[in-house]
Write a structure and sequence with these properties.
This is MCTP2 protein. This protein has about 200 residues and is mainly beta. The protein folds into 2 domains: about 1-75, no CATH class; about 80-204, Sandwich (Immunoglobulin-like), CATH 2.60.40.150. It is about 5% helix and about 45% strand. The chain contains 1 helix and 11 strands; from the N terminus they run E-E-E-E-E-H-E-E-E-E-E-E. It has one helix spanning about 95-100, and strands at about 20-30, 35-45, 55-60, 65-75, 80-85, 115-125, 140-145, 150, 160-170, 175-185, 190-200. A 4-stranded antiparallel beta sheet has the order 8-7-10-11, with no helix packed on it. A hairpin with a 2-residue loop joins strand 10 (about 175-185) and strand 11 (about 190-200). The longest helix is centred in the middle third of the chain and has 10 residues, at about 95-100. It is globular and about 55 Å long. It starts with about 20 loop residues before the first strand and ends with a strand. About 10% of the residues are buried. The model has no long low-confidence stretch (mean pLDDT about 85).
Length: about 200
């Protein structure tokens, strides 16, 4: 019930050089659980923004009245990575020793925000639900931790996909929950849900 909403939410997107350079934003209005209406869209050219500083942008909504006020900072990606199983970032013993030293008890208060990081090896899925008429699925896996989200590639026509990827997340809240969701890619349509598991960090 507001024409001037304030969200004050922060989201972290991991931007890699092989991705497109435009940030697409949509604003929606929801009357109830069933009815939604698009109130406008806008785009931000990431490559045009100065790096290592916070940019305050007022973005007019295209073909609609109103605007969005946003703070966007482009900074080097630290602690986040996607790699193959054979080049696992923690595979080097000397690197493991450096990390153990970095997070030892005597260094606990050196950087309060640097809690640690989580490394997840996504190996494979077994006996997935068949989402296609041919009795197959095109599965991919999405990992979410807080507002961070990373995903695997799609393995086509397979109910027992192997991804063999290693994901590394910085931990911002030890009470966060890692959510791992498997979807079936469905072309231009929204992906179909194939299953999900939630793992509290405190249980690791």
């Amino acid at each position: 019930k507001s024409a001037n909403p304030q969200w004050r939410e922060q989201f972290d997107f991991h931007y890699f050089s092989d991705r497109k350079d435009m940030l697409d934003i949509e604003v929606w209005r929801k009357d109830n659980k069933k009815h939604e209406e698009l109130l406008g869209t806008c785009q931000v050219d990431i490559t045009a923004l100065p790096t290592k500083q916070t940019n305050c942008l007022e973005l007019p909504l295209e073909k609609h009245s109103g605007s969005l006020l946003m703070l966007i900072a482009v900074a080097p990606c630290t602690g986040v990575s996607i790699s193959d199983l054979c080049v696992c970032p923690l595979g080097d013993p000397s690197e493991r020793q450096q990390i153990s030293q970095r997070y030892c008890i005597k260094n606990s208060f050196r950087d309060i925000k640097d809690i640690g990081f989580l490394q997840v090896k996504v190996l494979k899925a077994v006996d997935l639900l068949a989402a296609d008429f041919a009795g197959k699925s095109d599965p991919f896996c999405v990992l979410e931790l807080g507002n961070d989200s990373l995903q695997t590639h799609t393995v086509y026509k397979n109910l027992n996909p192997e991804w063999n990827k290693v994901f590394t997340f910085p931990i911002k809240d030890i009470h966060d929950v890692l959510e791992v969701t498997v979807f079936d890619e469905d072309g231009d349509k929204p992906p179909d849900f194939l299953g999900k598991v939630a793992i509290p960090l405190l249980s690791v």
